[in-house]
Amino acid sequence: MFGGGAHPTAGTGGNGQQPAFVKFAPGDHGSLLLDVFFQHPDTYQKHVGPDGRIRSWASSLYYIKEGEQGYGHEDIDYRTTTTRKMQSQMTYGPLGSSSLARPEEQFMKALLARRKRELKAANLGDLTRRDYVLKIYMPEILKEDGEPRIWRRFVVSGGMSFDVFQDKVLAPLMGWWRNFHGHIFTDYRDGTLFGPRNCQSVDMMHIDLSGYAYLNEEEYCIAHVLSEVGNIMKYQYDLGDHFDHDIEVEHILPLESSSGAIKVLAGSGICPMENGGGNSKWSRTLETMKSGSTKEKRDQLKEIYRELNYTQRGWNLRPQFDPDYFDVAETQNAIMTALGTKGSYPAGARVFKIPMSLEGFSVDPQMRGIRRKTTSEITAPVDSESWGYFEELKKDGKDRNSACAACGSPHDLKQCAGCKQRFYCSAACQKGHWKSTHKQECEDLQKQKRST
Predict the structure, then answer these.
(1) H or E stretch including 297?
(2) Which of 214, 326, 355, 397 could form a cystine bridge with 193, CB 3.0-4.6 A?
(3) Mind listing the pLDDT tens digit for each residue in 341-354?
């Protein structure tokens, strides 16, 4: 995914180049540091891709892959970036001899602060109250006619915050397992990144390969990035495998026609399996399922059906693998189920553990850097070959951001007076959800609270 060899964006420490803004610790000459970090965060050279899009704060050059339309890679060398990080951690931060933050962190802190000020001053008008018709699709996974094989069309409010959007809409819409991997949203207009606060997903170790830092997604909504028909933003799921999605505005409904409710309109293509290697790898996987030998198909299907996003949705029970499978009603139900639960807690993201004993399921949250009250939830893989479990920590108390548990609207929310855990945009939504789902749940949540 990432190129090798000489990189025009890589720094050449030791040649006397002096940084315009960041400060180096004694002994650090900027070896292997990207050129952008020798510049000033207010005036640095911004790299625009050949397709006119800006990625990762415009910090790296972008190349279109030969023979492909509109898709390529950023000029980032995995080995160089990783080596720089390993070297600098012995100089900067808790493990280092200097109290300075890494030069990369100094630069990004100033850049983030400036972008925060700009977004705070942005006038969104009535866009936060208007409904958007969006199409999400996965580049590089294409049908024979060149059109995206995996796509969804849906309606959502422009006022929905990015954290709720990803956790309760995009994950179930696509078929990803909630709170398992990290993610980042990219504003293609200027390369601004948005992501989960204090996310502890294991793939977050690769953040330097996806832009180094991002704004807290809890503080921004869809309308901050998508403001008119034709706008496109990027949604990257899993910072290790890099499953890339583009989200395009097809229509913005008038205010008087907007309810805020989420509705799945159409779609095609089953979700890639978790840990599936990214877009290009999944495209090759589909080719194996189509043209491979009987043994190759059987082995590949076994690997696909053992992944948790397939078992959670019941897709592993389908006798035949259909790469174009998609069901509107099933997907709508998955979103409604997610809306009727607490928001995921990125600091308590799911991690796979192998216990030292069969009783070893309890883990102190403070070992994961969590200081607030949480509840542990265990998920055991269905694969009999795996001896271990997934643990997720759920934050106690109410969500900071939410959406109506009955329809998905982010507007005019009021909490349930009983459990104080679910939110509703109207009395009608609360009444309907109470009869269908929430009555028993509310009683159980109140009993749980009293017991603790």
Answers:
(1) helix 294-305
(2) 214
(3) 999 999 999 988 88
**Alpha-carbon span 402 to 414, nearest angstrom:** 10
All residue ranges of the chain with pLDDT < 50 are 1-14, 67-70, 358, 360-361
Note the pLDDT tens digit of each residue in 71-119. Answer: 666 666 678 888 888 888 888 877 777 889 999 999 999 999 999 999 9
Query: What is the C-alpha radius of gyration for the chain, rounded to an integer number of angstroms?
Result: 23
Report H helices in 321-420. Answer: 328-339
Which residues, in sequence order, are CB contacts of 157 under 8 Å at separation 6+? Answer: 128, 129, 130, 131, 132, 222, 258, 260, 262, 408, 409, 410, 411
Distance separating alpha carbons of residues 421 and 442, to the nearest angstrom: 8
Cα–Cα distance for residue pair 432/138, rounded to 1 Å = 35
Q: Which of 202, 171, 196 is nearest to 309 (CA)?
A: 171
**Cα 347 from Cα 370, distance rounded (Å):** 7
Query: Length of the chain in residues, anyone?
Result: 452
Q: How far is CA 370 from CA 14, 198, 204, 393, 395, in A?
A: 40, 10, 16, 9, 10
Residue 271: partners with Cβ closer than 8 Å, 6 or more residues away:
150, 174, 175, 176, 309
Question: Quick one: which H or E segment has residue 83?
Answer: helix 78-88
β-strand pairing of 243-252 with 131-137: antiparallel
Paired with 287 in beta bridges are none
Strands (E), 96-239: 131-137, 151-157, 183-187, 193-195, 215-216, 232-237
pTM exceeds 0.70 for this model? yes
Neighbours of 104 (CB within 10 A): 22
Q: How far apart are CA 159 and CA 145, in angstroms?
A: 35
